[in-house]
Amino acid sequence: MSGRLYVISGPSGVGKSTVVQQLRNEIKDLAYSISYTSREPRENEMDGVHYHFVKRETFEKMIEEKAFVEWAEVYDALYGTSLDVLQDQMSQGLDVVLDIDSQGAVNVKKHFEESRLIYILPPSLDILGERLRGRGTDAEEVLRTRFEKALREIKRCVDYDYLVFNEEIDRAVKEIKCIILSDRVRRSRRLSMVEKIFNIPLSPK
């Protein structure tokens, strides 16, 4: 049984990274695809753990070589997801979770039609603004830019299969966990296992 992709998106500050980390801790055989980026690492970020940090020239060369299933420029930095890494993880039967923006999510869906797109929303814009300021990592001008972009981003939720409000982190994680685990027991993913275990040919109706 090959794995499936679960794409998680949402406006900056909505808590995607925290949600993804908890999902990885709680769900067995859930892999994570580490994105490539041309930006410099922030404090406490590690290469190969949070991102693969590469020079812009290297990233652009990878684009020419069609190494990415999706890539985008965000705030003057390039971000992309390796096609080879995804295919390798899925061929091992691993489900893979991606933390990418809405533009990248649509491109992933074009390459992998069976992927599931999950959009995380803040409970309100006021709370989103508080979360962005609470980071303490960006100047006020950058915060305004991120907030304006968040408004545009939220409109893209119509392209997603599932919408999850992150009012309480544990509840948001539980909802996404239910999506992934229920998807694993769908007939389309279990039929080959039934054939193998019971040694009988089956054809889906």
Structure, explained:
This protein has about 200 residues and is an alpha/beta fold. It has one domain: P-loop containing nucleotide triphosphate hydrolases (Rossmann fold), CATH 3.40.50.300. Helices cover about 45% and strands about 20% of the residues. It contains eight helices and nine strands. The chain has a five-stranded parallel sheet with strand order 2-7-1-8-9, sandwiched between helices. Strand 5 and strand 6 form a beta hairpin. The longest helix is centred in the C-terminal third of the chain and has 16 residues. The chain starts with a strand and ends in a 7-residue tail after the last helix. The model has no long low-confidence stretch (mean pLDDT about 90).
What's the topology here?
Blueprint: E1 5-9, H1 16-26, E2 30-32, E3 36-37, E4 52-53, H2 56-64, E5 68-74, E6 77-82, H3 83-91, E7 95-99, H4 102-111, E8 116-121, H5 125-135, H6 140-154, E9 162-165, H7 169-184, H8 187-198
Parallel strand pairs: 1-7, 1-8, 2-7, 3-4, 8-9
Antiparallel strand pairs: 3-6, 5-6
Short description:
By secondary structure, this protein is of the alpha/beta class. The protein has helices spanning 16-26, 56-64, 83-91, 102-111, 125-135, 140-154, 169-184, 187-198, and strands at 5-9, 30-32, 36-37, 52-53, 68-74, 77-82, 95-99, 116-121, 162-165.
CATH superfamily grouping? P-loop containing nucleotide triphosphate hydrolases
Average pLDDT works out at: 90
Structural domains: how many: 1
Radius of gyration computed on alpha carbons: 18 Å
Strand order of the largest sheet: 2-7-1-8-9
Flag low-confidence runs.
Answer: none
Total helix count? 8
Order of helices and strands: EHEEEHEEHEHEHHEHH
The CATH class: Alpha Beta
